[in-house]
Amino acid sequence: MKKTILLTVGLILLLTVVSLAGNYDSQKETEFFLKAKEYVFERNWEKAQARLEDYLKRYRSGRFEEEALYWLARSMNQLSREVKEADAMVRLKEKAIENLDILLEGHPKSVWKDDAIALRVEIAATLALLGQEKYKRYIEEIVKSHEKEQSEILMIALEALAEMEPEVALPMIEDVLTKQKDPMVRKQAVFLIGAYHGEEGLSILKKVEVTDQDKAVREEAAYWGKRIQTALIPVQLNYYGYIARIDKEKDYHLLPEGKLSVFEFPALRSHSSKEIEKEVQKLFEGKLSDVKFATSAIGGIDIPQISGGRIQRSQMQLSHNLRGFRIEVPGDDIEKGYFQVRGKVSFFDTYRDREHLKDFVVNENHGQLMAMRNGEDVAILVLQFKSLEEPLDFSGEPVYYTKFTNVFGAVVHSSRQTWSTEEMSGVKKGSVVDYSRAKAEIPGKGGKWVLVGDIQLHGKERRFIGRDAVLYNPKHKVVAEASEIIVPANDPASFKVAGKE
């Protein structure tokens, strides 16, 4: 009996010791992991990475393995943003995805699953944009199986795909709009079509505007549809800024001090700042002196703009300081129609700390001039309407003395006045012809492409090379502006900008 009691007591003591040892180890593991997380909260990503890696080595299949893998991947991703070398950044992001893969494949029911998927999509999108195309599959898989994914993850994947490959994304986004039950996801899909696809997504937006069951989704589709249609209206707004003086006090009445004065201004076809300046002098009866051109944008406002298939906010957010006045034309306030452009102009008087806000309307019959004076100093803004259905007129164009027709189907206007017989026949011989400052009108898909710059023709390769040049597509949109643009005579749409693939 005594023996049995002793054995029982011994067993109890042994279990107690084992239990205490286990509790000690568990507590030690917890403390180690929490210390690693402290570095995460402190945003000390380098120490967080080292400590979390150490935890995963010491406690294989530990209690906090899933969470540690997630925070390790997140720390690596954050650390990758701080390194300067591109290769090091890519390696860190790739290693982060490896840890997320271990988490998701080893623990498919983990509470960290959704956070890990979302983070993996975010990192994969960055890597794909950096040229690591194998990571696109993480994003495409999410979009293709969109009915199984949570809304937040799906929206991250949709945006990543739209940014990487708009053409691939469009049919997938359309499928989401048709099958996805969550109106929040459908609304995000509509935004992505409007933001990344422009004209090619217009028919989808029109359909959604009529058929979607959710009011917010229909309104989003109507908004983006209107923006895209507005962008396609072939008109724009040009502006010119000048500084000047009124020397004689007896002429100050032309521009009362501290007041924003507005004048109707003739609509000019020329984009020359000198021509605009002549009209400014005429308007003020020659009473202005020291008139100096300060700034301009030809086609600077074209709201909203489409660039590379993506619709953008105006590239022209005019904001200039002219003689103590800060002048702004907010792009978001501009309304564009076929026959006029309207919006607002702000003159902020820094002398008096006061803003003056005026509406403007310009059309094909008249522009507008706005001016303010402080003492003898004058700031002037001229706004001009431009219909792109008119023949193109390029800023700073020289006089073209020579016109060559049928240059591999193109028409070339050159500023050169004299030519040798050899040069005149150079096109047929396939040699290099230097047109100097010139304008080449090149027929192509959709109409006439126009290259303006210092142009050479390389006859053998049947291509134009424009230096310090601008290329306009058949819709009169600038598609390239660079130190060198190479345009094939038979396919201008396949142009290349030197230095870019």
Describe this structure in words.
With 501 residues, the chain is an alpha+beta fold. It folds into three domains: 201 residues, Serine Threonine Protein Phosphatase 5, Tetratricopeptide repeat (Alpha Horseshoe), CATH 1.25.40; 153 residues, no CATH class; 96 residues, no CATH class. Helix content is 41%, strand content 29%. The chain has 14 helices and 19 strands. The strands form four sheets. It has a seven-stranded antiparallel β-sheet, with no helix packed on it. A five-stranded antiparallel β-sheet has the order 2-11-12-1-3, covered by helices on one side. A hairpin with a 2-residue loop joins β13 and β14. α4 runs antiparallel to α5 and α8 runs antiparallel to α9. The radius of gyration is 33 Å and the shape is globular. The relative contact order is 0.06. The N terminus is likely disordered.
Unreliable spans are 2-22, 302-317
Report, as a whole number of angstroms, the end-to-end distance: 91 Å
Widest sheet: strand order?
13-14-15-16-17-18-19
β-sheet strand percentage: 25-35%
Q: How many distinct beta strands? A: 19
Number of domains: 3
CATH class of the largest domain: Mainly Alpha
Mean pLDDT: 81
Fraction of residues in H or I helices? 40-55%
The radius of gyration over CA amounts to 33 Å
- Can you summarize the main beta sheet? 7 strands, antiparallel
Give the class from helix and strand content and strand pairing. Answer: alpha+beta
CATH architecture of the largest domain: Alpha Horseshoe
Q: Count of helices? A: 14
Sum up the overall morphology in one term.
Answer: globular
CATH fold-level name of the largest domain:
Serine Threonine Protein Phosphatase 5, Tetratricopeptide repeat
